[in-house]
Each structure stands twice: as C-alpha cells, then as structure tokens.
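Service request form, structural biology core

Requester: graduate student, group of Dr. S.
Request type: structure prediction, single chain
Budget code: on file
Notes: please return the result as structure tokens.

Sequence provided:
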Amino acid sequence: MLKHDRILALVKGLETPRGIDPRYAGYFVCFNRGDYYEAHDVLEDLWLEEHGPDRSYYQGLIQLAGALVHLRKQAERPWHPKDGARLRPAERLLRLARARLEPYPSMHLGLDLSLVRSLIDTLTRQLATSPENPWSPKNRPQLPVDQV
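Core staff response, request fulfilled:
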C-alpha cells in the first residue's frame, strides 16, 4: 500500500466540519493521542498538495509534531546513542515551527494559535534552560481545536 493510500485509510470516516480536509482533522486526532509521527505523516500528505497561503501553516504544524517525535523518543530511550541526543533537534524544530506559524492570526482554520505558540515557547524555553526533557506521557501536550 502506498503511503498516500495508507494515510487516506487512516483518516477515512473522521467526522469533520464541512470544508475541512480529513487529513487536517486527522493531524489533531493523532497529535492529541501522542502519535506525533503519524500526525506528521497525515498533515505532510496535505502539505505536499498545498501551494497556497496555508502551506507554511501546515509546515509549522508538521515541524511541531516532528519536534515531539524527538522528545518522545528521547524520553523513551534516553540511554540510546541516537535517541538520547534528540533534545537539540527538537529545540531546532520548535523554533522553526514558531517562525512558520508567526504570520498567521490567533485563530486559524479552527486552531487557537496563541495557545500553540505558548506551548512552543514553553517547550523551547525549557529545552534551552534545562538538560531535562520536558515531555512525558503523563503530561503530553494537547492541541485545542475549535472547529476541526
């Protein structure tokens, strides 16, 4: 099965408001379950087709999910040579995500970006000031979605 077909099967049947792409809604379902890699893949599939004003927005959300992939893997295997070194790449992706999302209004496509920016800022600050990973399965971030 091709990646695109696998993603469409993953989001098939999601309840979404009229006009909302199921891959966009699927991003939030996956993200809020802590399935950041899947969230990244689902939205990347939409991003590859987007050539309009939301392309950078989607890319910022993809980078946020990518950063959390790094944090989750580091938290799960901090002793592992590759996974133990994922905090700096996570911080870099968070900074890239923040820059990509900056131009968009506080509410965009049903998402409260002021809360997302605050989450990114908090994680970035924690990574910059402490050697500890701020992510844990007990307090994994949730994205507040209004109309998605």
